[in-house]
Amino acid sequence: MKSEASNNGQSGLRVITICVGHETAEKVKAATLREHGTFVGELQGYSLQEGELQPLLKLQNAQVPVCVIDFDKDRKLAVQAANSIQLMLRGRTTLIALSEQSDSTLIVEAMRAGCGEYLAKPLSVGQVCESLNRLCGRIQGVRDVKTSGKILVFLGCRGGAGATTLAVHLGSYLARLYGKKALIVDQHRHLGHVALYLGQDTPSYDFYELVRNVARLDQTLLAGFVAHHGSGVDVLASPAMLNGSIPVQLDAAERSIRFLANVYEYVIVDCPVGLGDVNLATIDCCDELYLVATPDVPALRDLSKYVDRLSQCNVPPSKLRVVVNRYSSDCAVTLEQIEKAIRQPVSITVPNNPTEVMRAMNTGTPVSPDRRTEFALQMKKWAASLLPVTPEMVPEEPKRRFSLWR
How confident is the prediction along the chain (406 residues), in pLDDT tens digits per residue? Predict the structure, then answer.
């Protein structure tokens, strides 16, 4: 490991090289210093040794962390190193692939391993500066971009809370009832259910493929990725696989979500359980976070921990909406007990209607908004509450026991 060279880190840029020849590494170092960044150093092998973990961790808290990997010495090991670094740093670094070759197969392989840039050797200092400039611009652009559409995130406190069911119905009702341009994004990395619940279990592309192509993302490319449902809602499915690692660059995921919110009026994101980095990055982008729980003691325990953790992560309370799904008057845990335990109001309750909802899940056909059931009426009211308030848009409130907004 070579010594660290710093230009006071004025740009928040930190760069490290892996298996890069010394002459090329010197050019990367010169470009980093020219861009007012810090060159952390050179790692000599693909197999990261215990003593080399500390230099890598220096990238984790950088505003613009960059790892340059040479793919020529051993392509397979380079891919393994790229995947390991993404997992080790939890997606909080940008990878640049180097190679003397420029064939499409290698480029695709590098991109699938999580590389956001591909540079051909021999390198010039100017070439590296341009690449680093692009990366800094992308990351800054994520922070600065304003979205015209609303980003609504659904997060179940545990598996089976019903977050996916609610997300699917809210999106389809916004599109079908009110003609809104809505998109449901399934952010599960393995076997998400959004497409399945809409009768579309053979998607051609998934959300994470879109993220990997964010550098060339435009409306034409997007049109080839989304699937269209008869209700009018569009869908970005999850990967249809059970195993395998999917490296995700957080800035690329954020850019993708924000891009979508400038194309659609409503982007509804169905997140997997947990508060990992990708979920937190998505929550950071969103306008409203629907934290979904059921009215039982295990769910209440989990809900309380989620609320506390979100507060520790500095998620603004104004974003948070606690949703109690499958609520009925004879639940073991009352709304008052829930609110007391989490020190937060319950914003939304959705009635328990297992027969109707189970039929919808099994047939891939959402509950029709034309039905006069409590579930359909509540979902319609929820969808209407998201629109600019006009008298003709708000359905007549049913005189029933359950309330949506408390």
Answer: 554 666 654 558 899 999 999 999 999 999 999 988 999 888 888 876 655 666 676 776 777 889 999 999 999 999 888 888 876 776 677 889 999 988 888 887 887 777 878 899 999 999 999 988 887 776 655 454 556 899 999 999 998 999 999 999 999 999 999 999 999 999 998 889 999 999 987 778 899 999 988 878 888 889 989 999 999 999 999 987 776 667 787 888 888 999 999 999 999 999 999 988 889 889 989 999 999 999 999 989 999 999 999 988 888 999 999 999 999 888 878 899 999 999 999 999 999 888 889 998 888 899 999 999 999 999 999 999 999 765 454 445 444 434 444 4
CA angle (385 as vertex; 380, 391 as ends), nearest 5: 90
C-alpha closest to that of 18 among 44, 38, 47: 44
Coil, helix or strand at residue 32:
helix
Phi–psi pair at 364, nearest 5 degrees: 70, 25
Enter the pTM of the model: 0.66
Cα gap 12→281, rounded to integer Å: 19
Q: Which amino acid is at 304?
A: S
- Report DSSP letters for 334-375, one per residue: -HHHHHHHHTS-EEEEEE--HHHHHHHHHHT-PPPTTS-SHH
User: Is the separation of the CB atoms in 66 and 132 below 8 Å?
Assistant: yes
Alpha carbons within 13 angstroms on the beta-carbon side of residue 306 total 27
Which residue in the block uniquely carries the two structure tokens 């790692």? 43
